[in-house]
Amino acid sequence: MLNRIRSRNELNYFIVEESQCNNNCSGAAYFLFCFTFCMITMFSISTSNPFQTGFAYAGENQGTWDYYKSRFISSDGRVADLFQNNISHSEGQGYGLLLSVINNDKATFENILNWTKNNIMVRTDGLAAWSWGQRDNGEWGVIDYNNATDGDILIAWALLKGNEKWQNNEWQSWADSTIDRIRLLLTIKKQNKIILLPGYYGFTSKSAKSEESKQSNNLDNINLRLNVSYFLFPAFSVFADSGLNDSNSKSGGSKNGDSKSRTAENKKFWQQLSGDSLTILKQSLSGSMTLPPDWLNIDEKGKPIIDKDKGAVFGYDAIRVPLYLAMAGDKKSLEIFKPYLKFCNKIGYVPVTVDLINEQIAIPEASAGFHAVLSKCASMVGETEISKSLMQKADSKIMQEKDDYYSNTLYLLAKSIQQ
Known about the structure:
three-stranded antiparallel beta sheet, 12 strands, disordered N terminus
């Protein structure tokens, strides 16, 4: 099914048909999709216990790259979330690659890349399977063959940065191919906006106008489920400037004028996606503190609506929105978080979640990673004292979070931002 999609029209048709399958087939098509991948790759996936290579305790130097790679990255390059049954995700592999580049650690970069290539690059479309861990039968391997778009973006972004630092044409080619796949398979155009889907399968559904949609192939009548924390604005900027050719140029022999045209078209695409994503993000802001939700629905009219079932809070996912805006250096957009920063400063702590519908905050305090992200945000919008207070809290809390992969990841990424 994936191999036959060669054009945007075919992709649009598949998405419409997929939405009908979601409603009429009750997941049967997806089961067949996953089963096929499983049969193809069952002999190439590691089934041994990954703890033969181990995740070691690294003393008391929490909050450092040395601690992170010793605690969360196995000796064969697998990045593990210890709080989720030692599972690994494409997102985690991407973060590990990115942090390796940031910390000028080529050996770890190559190690993570090799594990990624050998274990989750098993789909036939060039995207990564998003979830790898222990199966019900006790063996270890891919758990879910669907992709996660942020994982693919992070991997491609890290490959480009790795090639820039250490010059490896194979990494550049891998990045080029992944970016082509993201553009072709994971973006759609709806009401003149380019929209990034969270994954290949499961994020579209037919509206009441589905019959019209079926006849006209009109994506404006399709409802979407989005995750605004997958809008990696700094990566979009790198993709726009990468000078990629589209997939049709891979055959070679293109003229210089054609290459320039494709480069200009690529730049225009990623710039529009970035701009449209920012528009959707701002339209999603909810509640008295104008925060984005973890998950968002887009109805057939293009109106953003909080996804009450999946994520009516600003929390675990959406905390990455200010992180990525800060990494992109977008101080103007970070201004939207000023009311929340002042609120947290007033009450004396950062809640782990904010209910955007009922206007309630959680009693538990957020992790060090949240504090570090908001500290950088505060610094970039001129709230210097709030920034200092938040980072002091982050530095203190990270010492107590030795097994929290996600908090340590956010913490290191936030700390790496240069202003």
